[in-house]
Amino acid sequence: MFDVKDKIFLVTGAAAGIGEGVARGLAEKGAKHIAILDIDVKNGTALEAELNRKYGSDIAKFHKCDVTTAELDAAFDATIKQFGYIDVVINNAGIMNDGPDVYLKALEVNVTSLIRSSLKAYNLMRKDNGGKGGTIVNISSIVGLMQSSLLPVYSAAKSAVLQFSNCLGAEQTYSRTGVRVVALCFGTTDTNLINGHVGAIDDVLENIIPQALSRMPKQGVDDAVKGLLVAIEEGQSGDTWLITSGKPAENITQTVKDSYANLSKSILN
After folding, report:
1. Residue 6 dihedral angles phi and psi, to the nearest 5°
2. Which of 26, 150, 179, 255 counts the highest number of beta carbons within 10 A?
3. 165 in Cβ contact with 183 (< 8 Å)
């Protein structure tokens, strides 16, 4: 069982919503340091000050960071320079918006930057490359486990996150590198991601989405954070965990593996 205490964490999208809750949860569990990465300077600096006041200086450090830019590398490098290592990277930053003017940026945040952050962490942590191992946690979604016509771009992005994380965290790679990779599929969570404007690929879908979201079972940020912490503490590399509807976190790894095994039958036979 993984122990959060005295570990160095880097969390993207950590100034509000689930990311903010995660930073608080890690501090409560005794993390040595949490690097808080976000574009939201006001909330990020306030969270840094609050956590340092409550848990001791140097517990938290806010890094103004657009994960699609070199600011991501700078935040990694600054944390490593100060502490010598990063034990856990949580790629939480995300955009749920398929709008014509947003979807390319959303793909950069949701997929490209997540992969870039994961591989930066992977190469730092690899035991076969001078590292001491570590953990990468990537945030997918329930839309990575289902097919929906409402948000095809976002669904594609979260499906990509799930596949990337499962494949990077495969046992044959983990046994060589000591880098554990865990994917989390969150259900609809009460954050600005769903409470703000959610753009769609056309006007018809854009009008349908708010009604569809209102009918989805929701969970609070505390539910999501609690589930995430369980997955970090108990998850194995290559795992997929489902955290939805306020229910306890559920390890659905075998279900995902069985589903892909079924899909690949006609290819492998």
Report:
1. 65, 15
2. 26
3. yes
Query: Are 230 and 249 spatial neighbours (Cβ–Cβ below 8 Å)?
Result: yes
| pLDDT for res 190 | 86
- Cα distance between residue 236 and residue 103, in whole Å: 32
Extract the tokens encoding 38. 């976000």
CA distance 227 to 111: 22
Report how far residue 7's alpha carbon sits from residue 87's, in angstroms, rounded to the nearest whole number. Answer: 6
In angstroms, the first-to-last Cα distance of the chain is 38
The model's pLDDT over 31-76, given as tens digits with 9 standing for 90+, comes to 999 999 999 999 999 999 999 999 998 999 999 999 999 999 999 9
Beta-strand runs (E) in 120-190: 134-141, 179-186
Query: Across the chain, what does the average pLDDT equal?
Result: 96
- List residues with catalytic annotation: 154
Q: Locate 167 and state its tokens.
A: 């494949």
User: What is the bridge-based pairing of β-strands 250-251 and 240-243?
Assistant: antiparallel
Question: What is the Cα–Cα distance from 118 to 66, expressed in whole angstroms?
Answer: 16
Residue 148 φ/ψ, nearest 5 degrees: -140, 140
